[in-house]
Amino acid sequence: MTIDSTVVELRSVTFRRGNRTILDAVDLTVRAGEHWALLGPNGAGKSTILGFAAAVTHPTSGSVQILGQRLGRVELQALRRSIGHVNPRHPLQSPLTIRDLVLTGLTGSIETPPRWEPTLKQIQLAAELINQMGLTGKDGDRWPTLSQGERGRALIARALIAEPDLLLLDEPTTGLDVAAREQLLETIDALEHDFPRLASILVTHHLEELPSTTSHAALIAQGRIFKAGLAEQVLTTENVTAAFAHPIRVGQHDGRWFALPGRKRSRELTRF
């Protein structure tokens, strides 16, 4: 894979649930090494797009290609092994250790499969990733005892152990306090250096939750992509105000984004 290889490609994608159109005529291209953010109001369709990228949702019409494979024409389990997915609502019920949790990324399962034993090399790789995520010495700590921040970083290690080409982050800072949020975002920022060819897509509602390494962004509203492209060109006061249908002032400080209330105008805000 070259640095400009296409990792995710949506073309004229529509998704309907019953009589409701969730997404309509969506086009999106993500290439290797790019770090995308999907932002928009609740119900805009962000999670549905992430579902396409995760190869768990199929379009009603249009085409979705992930890592050169078209959904509907590929063996899904094999494709999903090349996709790392971080969901803070990870439905683990057993008190697995961090090491065992990370190793489930190799089997693509929530629990450790019966009679499955990792190799020494796999155990060593898990330990390296745990250290990279700032969890040194916590290999044996169990899931129920972990803070939300520790869980988030452990889940990133789990997503990376299979050496994916695509990393999906579904509102990864949900439930974190400010310090834990910043620690997690620092961990995500470090991925650009440690895994330079990895592409990522992050879903969030809040600009302040964007990693500083965010290179591209898509604003989604009413089931359509309003604007998509380089983050600095997309995340402007005008565009964010229009996408959220509310006056929002957007800015950057030390590479991080922030949003503040915008001035109310007498005329109706631009909608699309």
Describe the protein in words.
With 272 residues, this protein is α/β, with parallel strands linked by helices. The chain has a domain at 6-82 and 164-261: P-loop containing nucleotide triphosphate hydrolases (Rossmann fold, 3-Layer(aba) Sandwich), CATH 3.40.50. It has eight helices and twelve strands. The chain has helices spanning 46-53, 76-80, 98-107, 120-132, 148-160, 178-194, 231-234, 237-244; strands spanning 6-17, 20-31, 35-39, 61-66, 69-70, 83-86, 166-170, 199-203, 216-221, 224-230, 248-253, 256-261. Strands 6-7-8-3-9-10 form a six-stranded mixed beta sheet, sandwiched between helices. α3 (98-107) crosses α4 and α4 packs across α5. The radius of gyration is 19 Å and the shape is globular. The model is unreliable at 266-272 (pLDDT under 50).
Between the first and last Cα atoms, what is the distance in angstroms? Answer: 37 Å
Radius of gyration: 19 Å
What structural class do the secondary elements suggest?
Answer: alpha/beta
Global outline: globular
Offer a few descriptive terms.
four-stranded antiparallel beta sheet, 8 helices, about 270 residues, Rossmann fold, globular, 12 strands, disordered C terminus, single chain, alpha/beta, six-stranded mixed beta sheet
